[in-house]
Amino acid sequence: MRDKLIRLLFLSVLIGLAIPAQKAAAQKFGYIDSEFLLNKHPDYKVIQNELSALSNEWKKEAQNLDNQIKELYVSLKAEEVLLTEEMYQERLAVIKVKEKESVTFNNRVFGMNGQYYQKQAELLQPLQSKIFDAIDRVCKRNGLAVLFDKASGPLMIYTDPRHDYSEFVLEELGIENK
């Protein structure tokens, strides 16, 4: 999901840069590698660590719910012979409620538009804006009509390194490539 969001942002940049290029007679093209840029940016590592910590915390919570359900099933199985049919059905209903809680929790946290993805978008947005602004400045300074993103999928079959503007974007962001 994170990669799709980033790729969508860069695709939007490319489309936005391509429209003014139609007016120019000679069009100049280039490409960047958004994965390379993100991995080089120090803020990205901080964001990844924060997301990882949140994810681990939520995964533990989900595991606790699953463990409670398993314990309830084990307890039910152990006491099955001692329970009346009514008591058995009551305990089974409690287990089903717990299972629904678990599914609801997982959907709320990790589902589409869940808390994890909302937090990810919230944390990545400022970084994406910085990178977009740097890309915009590099494109204008170098007179690029179109800038492709090498990381966004199978759009590029061959790339000539002399048209790679990733280093210029890193430089614009003030990041030294080591």
Describe, in plain words, how this protein is organized in 3D.
- The structure is a single chain.
- The mean pLDDT is 85.
- The protein has helices at residues 2-21, 34-40, 42-79, 85-110, 115-142, 166-173; strands at 29-32, 146-149.
- The two termini are 28 Å apart.
- The protein has a two-stranded parallel ribbon with strand order 1-2.
- It is rod-shaped, with a radius of gyration of 25 Å.
- It has one domain (2-173).
- With 178 residues, it is mainly alpha-helical.
How many strands appear in the DSSP assignment?
Answer: 2
Mean pLDDT across residues: 85
- Strand order of the main beta sheet, please? 1-2
Order of helices and strands: HEHHHHEH
Radius of gyration: 25 Å
Overall morphology? rod-shaped
Give the domain tally. 1
β-strand amount: under 5%
Concise summary:
Keywords: Coiled coil, Signal. Residues 1-23 form the signal peptide. It is built from 6 helices and 2 strands.
Q: Topology, pairings included?
A:
Layout: H1 2-21, E1 29-32, H2 34-40, H3 42-79, H4 85-110, H5 115-142, E2 146-149, H6 166-173
Parallel strand pairs: 1-2
Helix pairs in contact: 1-5, 2-6, 3-4, 3-5, 5-6
Protein name: Outer membrane chaperone Skp
GO cellular component, one term: cytosol
GO molecular function: unfolded protein binding
What would the keywords be for this entry?
178 residues; mainly alpha; two-stranded parallel sheet; 4% strand
